[in-house]
C-alpha cells in the first residue's frame, strides 16, 4: 500500500515538473511579478517526493517484501534503525534521496531569494527543473524503488552488514545534501550567466549556498572517513580509494569556488572562472554518482551497480555539460580589461594562487581516479593507482600551499605593501626549529618530513596567533585555516608515530615483544537480533606496566550470512588504541592486529574546526573588510 | 626578546627522550604489503585485507624479505607473477606517461596563465 502511494506520488511529482515549467515560461514572458503559483507548485512537488520517500521508509519499516527494493535490502530480524537507514543504503532509495534533496533545495532557494529579480529566480527554477526531470525519469525508468514482486517472498535478503552502522546510516543523507546542494549553485550560475548578472551582488547571494553545500560535503566526507576507520578494520581513515576520491573532487572544486567568490564579491574579477567552477562542481558531483553507481570502479565502497544505469547517467551528464557550455559561450559576457587591475602582491593574487594549487590537486585526483579506467578500455592493460601516486604528487605541492595559506589572509585587497613583519619571520624560525628537533628526535627521514612539518607548524602558529591579535580578523577564515593546519599536523604525526603488531594468537596465548605483552585471555559470545558476536578479551601491558583491556569482536550476521570483524578502539586525547581480531578459516588461532594511532581524535576535531569556520560564515551577515 | 623564552622551552622539550621501537623488518613488510593490491578484494591492499589470498601474500612477502630480497626486487617479483595491477604505485612507462605527466603539465599550464596575467598588464 505504502509502496503504491509512493509510486503514484512520484508520477505526480514528475507531472508537477511540467506544470512548473509551463507556468514559469508564461511568467517569464509577461510583466507581472513572480507568480506565487510557481512557489506553491514547487512546494507541492517537494511534498510529493517527501510522500514517496515516506512510502519507501514505511515499506521498509513494515518489511513489505512485495517491494523489490525492500526484499533486496532488508530483513525482518533487522533492528528498526537499520530498517529505516536501509531506505537509502541502496541504489534506488539513495536516488530517491537525491531527488528529495533536489526538490528541497529548489523550494528553499525560491523562499530565500525573494529580493532577487524575477527573471533570475525563474531561470534558476527552470534549470533546476531540468535536473529534477532527469532524475525523475532516471528513477522511474531504470531504478524504480517501488517495483512489485509477486508472489510476495516470505523473507528479505538483508542489508550488507558493514552498512549496519550508525555513522553510515547518517553519512549518505549528509553527503547528499552537499552533493546535491551544488545543483542549486549550478542552476543559479547558469541563470545568472544567461542574464549576464554574474556580479558582486550575485556573489554575495550565492556564497551562502556554496557555504551550505560545502559544510555538508565536509561533514559527509568526515563521517565516511570515521566509518572507514572503525568499521573496515585496518585503522586507516583515507585510502585514496576511487569512491573517496569521487567525494573529494567536488569538495576541492567547491572550496576553490568559495575562495573565488570572495574575489568576485570584492573586486568584480574572475567572472568566467566562477562560472566554470560552478559548472565543474556539479558535474563532478554527477560524475561521482555515475562512477559509483555504474560499477566501473573497483572500490571498498561499491555496494550496488548496474551498467545500464551508468549509461543513462552518462547521457544525462553529457546533455547537462553541453547545455552549460552552450550558455557559457553564447550568453556569458567575458570580461577582459578587468584583469589588468591585478597587483602581484594582494589578497586577490594569493587567492588566485590558492586556485592554481587547488586545481592542481583536483587534476591529480581526477586523473588518478579515471586514468586506469581509460587505460583498460584502450589497451586492456590494468594498472592500479594507489596512495603512493597521490602522496608523491600532492605532498611536495602542499609545502608552498601551506605557506600561502598562512601569508594570503594577511595581505590586503587591491594592493599590499612589501612590509616584512618581524613576527612572521620569528614564527617561521620557531616552526623550523621545532620541526627539525622533532624529526631528529624521532629518527625519521629528515628532509621531506621536516620541511612539511615546518610549514604546517608555521600555518599553525600564524593562525593561532591571529586569534588573539588581529582586530578586524575574519574569524571563519581563521578557524578554517587553523583547522587545516591542525589537520595536516595530526595526519603527519599520526603517520610518523603509528605503531602496530600483527600476530596470530590462540585463546590463552601470550604475545611478547620488547614493547608490549598481549594476553589473549578468553572469548565470550553475545547473541543479538541480527547477528551473533564472538568477543575476545585481550589484556595489553606496555613496557611501563600500563594495562589496557580491549574487546574486539567477530560478528556473524544472519542475513546475509557474512562475518565481519569489529574493532575495539580505546579513544584517548593523544592516541587511539585499536584492535581487531580476524577469523582464519580452519585454524584454531585468530589473526590479531593491534595498533597505536596517535592524534586520531585531532584529525576528526580539526575537520570539525574547518567545518565550524564554514558554519560561522553562513551565519555571518557580511564579509568584513 | 620575548621569543627567546619560547626557543628555550623548545630546547628543553627536545631533551625529553622520545624513543621509538625500530622493529625495522615488520615495518618494511607492512610498507610493502600496503603497496600491493589484494587482487580478489574490492579495492583493498594486501595489508588491509584479511582474505586468504592477502594472508598468503603477507607470508610470501615475509619469506622474500628473509631471503634477503630488497623492496624493489619484491615488487618486481610480484609484478612478474601477477601483472602490474598488483602494484599500487604505478610505474613510469609508456602506459603511464600521461598519468604522471598530465597533472604536472596542468600545473605548469596554470602557472603560465597566472604569469601571463601579470606580464600582459605591464605591456
- Low-pLDDT residue spans of chain A: none
How many domains of chain A?
A: 3
**Mean pLDDT rating of chain A:** 86
The chain-level mean pLDDT of chain B equals 77
Beta content of chain A: 5-15%
Structural class of chain B: mainly alpha
Radius of gyration of chain B: 23 Å
Give the beta-strand count of chain B.
0
Coarse structural class of chain A = alpha+beta
The CATH H-level superfamily of the largest domain in chain B is: Cytochrome C biogenesis protein
Q: Architecture of the largest domain in chain B in CATH?
A: Orthogonal Bundle
Verbal overview:
The complex is a heterodimer of chains A (625) and B (123). Chain A has 625 residues and is an alpha+beta fold. Helix content of chain A is 62%, strand content 11%. Chain A contains 17 helices and ten strands. In chain A, helix 15 (446-468) packs antiparallel against helix 16 and helix 16 runs antiparallel to helix 17 (600-618). Chain B folds into two domains: 23-89, Helicase, Ruva Protein, domain 3, CATH 1.10.8; 92-123, no CATH class. Chain B is elongated, with a radius of gyration of 23 Å. Helices cover 63% and strands 0% of the residues of chain B. Chain B has helices spanning 2-15, 24-34, 52-66, 71-82, 97-122. The longest helix of chain B is centred in the last third of the chain and has 26 residues, at 97-122. At the A-B interface, helix 12, helix 13, helix 14 and strand 1 of A face helix 1, helix 2 and helix 5 of B.
